[in-house]
């Protein structure tokens, strides 16, 4: 495969060339976006041998992102699971809204708080992202992308996926950007 970047130029921090990567993308139909995303991710992670606790965390993160997409953005909606060198790397919830809105600012604010990433419980926006941030150990971000199914512009909110500790893997693609991210066992 010729050297290329994901999504027309996006490359997670710390990633050099990705010679062997592929994406599993599934359209998520309105009205069942969260439930379907959770089911699909469970199937992929279960087949990969991810332990129950890490699987539950990833399911909760994807369900939250999918629910947020359906509530705050427009369709179409997609779930993407990215594999690097045949191993799980990250999960994306993609919607048809090109506006990143407050997502990058909320994630930056969470990162700047270090060991105390909490948000004020009375704040109207950001609690779902706080949950994803905590479940992914801070290894999440948002960026513009194109829909796999239609080629239309949209945005992706993404988090790192857990993997088995005994898997033969290259360093996690986001390791340089998120040094606190730990793989699951």
TrEMBL record:
- What sequence ranges are listed for the domain Histidine kinase/HSP90-like ATPase? 35-137
What InterPro entries does this protein's entry cite?
A: HATPase_C_sf, HATPase_dom
Look up the signal peptide feature and give its range.
none
Highest taxon above the source species: Bacteria
Please provide the record's keywords in A-Z order. ATP-binding, Nucleotide-binding
One Pfam family from the UniProt entry?
Answer: HATPase_c_2
Gene Ontology molecular function terms on file: ATP binding
- Fetch the Gene3D superfamilies from UniProt: Histidine kinase-like ATPase, C-terminal domain
What's this protein's name?
ATP-binding protein
Which species does this protein come from? Streptosporangium vulgare
List the top taxonomic levels of the source: Bacteria, Bacillati, Actinomycetota, Actinomycetes, Streptosporangiales
């Amino acid at each position: 495969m010729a050297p290329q970047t994901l999504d027309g130029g996006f490359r997670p921090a710390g990633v050099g060339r990705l010679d062997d990567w592929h994406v599993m993308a599934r359209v998520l139909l309105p009205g069942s976006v969260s439930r379907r995303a959770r089911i699909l991710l469970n199937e992929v992670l279960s087949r990969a041998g991810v332990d129950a606790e890490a699987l539950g965390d990833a399911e909760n993160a994807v369900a939250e992102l999918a629910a947020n997409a359906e509530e705050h953005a427009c369709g179409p909606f997609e779930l993407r699971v990215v594999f690097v060198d045949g191993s799980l790397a990250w999960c994306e919830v993609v919607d048809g809204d090109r506006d990143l809105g407050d997502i990058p600012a909320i994630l930056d604010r969470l990162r700047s708080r270090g060991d105390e990433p909490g948000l004020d419980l009375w704040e109207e926006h950001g609690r779902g992202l706080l949950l994803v941030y905590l479940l992914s150990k801070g290894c999440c971000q948002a960026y513009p992308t194109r829909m796999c199914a239609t080629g239309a512009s949209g945005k992706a909110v993404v988090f790192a996926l857990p993997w088995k500790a005994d898997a033969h893997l290259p360093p996690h693609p986001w390791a340089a950007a998120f040094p606190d991210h730990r793989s699951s066992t």
